[in-house]
Write a structure and sequence with these properties.
heterodimer; A: 378 residues; alpha/beta; Rossmann fold; Heat Shock Protein 90; 3 domains; 12 helices; 13 strands; 18% strand; elongated; disordered C terminus; B: 132 residues; five-stranded parallel β-sheet; 5 helices; 5 strands
Chain lengths: 378, 132
């Protein structure tokens, strides 16, 4: 607990990112006039210089203006966090607007301060608060990461042992034992998915989810995801089929293929889970009039209840509450999907057919690779 | 054509993980598997067994996977042996870092018992394909 009570070194090292010289000077003067020896302030006027400063020096807190020349919206905040995930950020803004305040916090800022209320006490309070909040966030992330890793080790042993029994040794077992082993095996898989989801949520919340985005052929990713989820779907008596598509086989998208595979796994397993036994889940790929590529996963399930639609992409969203729940899962999947797609400039949505059946879709911009098409053409 | 993969050395600090990994690779893949508990004796064990391929746990107390990997690379008769990292931390960025260090492949934990041997075989073949 010592770390919580300790607010950092006696001299507070501040990185002030503000392009307006008068406003920057005002903040510097406000702080330094009160207690000059308590602060060491480095002032920069854009995100590029802020990144350089964070790379070369240590800072306790960043004061970040939102209207910088080289950053749109919260892109500056995100860039700084990716570079220095442990340094807290206080957003400085000229507008007293609840929506901006909320989205600053959602985008990972630790606090928010109106410039015209930036008195020495307000600034101090805000910086202390941000530092403390960041320390708690870091501790939470470390704790989740540690616990997840500690959970994974025994789960690895259990999962592999059960997999070996049910896969390679099942012929040596009497029928009731095979049944029990399959139950244990299925549930170890469920536990693994849950651990992965919790880790992902924490990475999203702390802006620590990293992406390896590069141009990749779309069709193989879709086909592999169908293959990988077919067995799971069969447990519900559901088969997954691919609809014929006009989309060219060498259509490229700019994605992290593992993360897109994760989104597909989520949509396919949801579709299977909510479909009646004996039905079919249909995957189709089509080019939209906008030029984007849409991957659709259509099920023949009961559809989505009206009152659930609004919060379906929210965190911990389940159609039923915990006590009346009929389907397993923590309700994290679609939230994670939406976050992943946002990182890849994609969108996710769904359509409900009137008589039941839901189609979830993902849209991604098509990536044109001149070198690749030329190589093909010649 | 890659030479046949026969002998594999598994290094992990968890005895149970070593046991199931060994069983998966022996029963499903038909390989001869040697186990080394922890990173401390890894180099000595590698020299004693001279495996075709090494599977190495990343998160081990004391000598971590990357430490062991660096130590293996310093021994001239071991440095050509392909190494697969086994890890519970598998973000793309981390995999990239490992591959940049010269690791042949990364296999995620928990792994699938029935496909582990095939994954190892694939890594072995692409290692030799890249060499030729």
């Amino acid at each position: 607990m010592d770390r919580l009570l300790h607010f950092g070194p006696n001299v507070l090292r501040i990185l002030l990112v503000e392009d307006s010289r008068p406003e920057a000077l005002y903040i510097e003067r406000t702080l330094l006039q009160a207690t000059p020896s308590a602060y060491r302030i480095k002032r920069v006027a854009d995100i590029t210089s802020a990144k350089q400063a964070l790379e070369t020096g240590d800072f306790d807190v960043v004061l970040l203006d939102l209207g910088l020349p080289d950053a749109i919206g919260f892109s500056g905040l995100q860039a700084l966090q990716a570079l220095a995930p442990k340094v807290p950020v206080v957003i400085l803004t000229g507008s007293d607007d609840r929506a901006t305040e909320l989205s600053a916090m959602e985008n990972g800022a630790q606090d928010y301060l109106l410039k015209d209320r930036a008195s020495v006490s307000a600034l101090n309070r805000s910086m202390r608060h941000a530092i403390q909040r960041k320390q708690i966030e870091n501790m939470k992330s470390e704790f989740i990461s540690l616990v997840s890793h500690e959970l994974r080790t025994p789960v690895t042993a259990i999962h592999a042992a059960l997999g070996l029994i049910s896969g390679d040794l099942s012929h040596t077992l009497p029928e009731p034992v095979t049944h029990l082993v399959n139950i244990a095996n299925r549930n170890s898989e469920r536990l693994i998915r849950l651990i992965n989801d919790i880790l992902d949520i924490d990475k999203i919340d702390s802006a620590h989810m990293y992406f390896d985005i590069r141009p990749d052929a779309l069709m193989p990713i879709v086909e592999q995801s169908i293959e990988a989820n077919a067995v799971y779907a069969l447990k519900y008596g559901v088969s997954i089929v691919m609809a014929p598509s006009d989309v060219s086989a060498d259509t490229f998208v700019n994605v992290d293929s593992k993360r897109l595979g994760q989104v597909m796994a989520n949509l396919l397993s949801n579709a299977a889970k909510f479909s009646p036994a004996g039905s079919t889940v249909t995957v189709s790929v089509a080019e939209m009039p906008t030029g984007a590529i849409r991957i659709s996963v259509a099920d023949q399930g009961p559809g989505i209840r009206e009152d659930f639609r609004r919060r379906i992409f929210g965190k911990f969203s389940q159609a039923d509450d915990a006590l009346t729940r009929t389907k397993q899962g923590a309700g994290l999947g679609l939230y994670i999907c939406r976050q992943i797609l946002e990182h890849m400039n994609g969108t996710i949505g769904y359509d409900c057919a009137p008589g039941g059946g839901t189609t979830f879709w993902v849209e991604l911009p098509v990536e044109t690779i001149p070198a690749f098409s030329e190589a093909r053409a010649s | 054509m890659s030479p046949p993969l026969k002998r594999i050395l598994c290094i992990d600090d968890e005895r149970d993980i070593l046991d199931v990994t060994q069983m998966c690779l022996e029963r499903i893949g038909g390989y001869e598997v040697f186990c080394c508990e922890g990173g401390q004796d890894a180099v000595a064990q590698a020299e004693a067994t001279m495996p075709d391929l090494i599977m190495l746990d990343v998160m081990m107390p004391g000598q971590t996977g990357p430490d062991v990997f660096a130590a293996l690379r310093k021994v001239s008769r071991l440095k050509g042996i392909p190494v697969i990292f086994m890890t519970a931390r598998v973000q793309s960025a981390e995999i990239k870092t490992y591959l940049k260090q010269g690791v042949t492949s990364v296999i995620a934990k928990p792994f699938d018992a029935m496909t582990l041997a095939a994954d190892v075989q694939n890594a072995w073949e692409s290692f030799h394909a890249a060499k030729s």
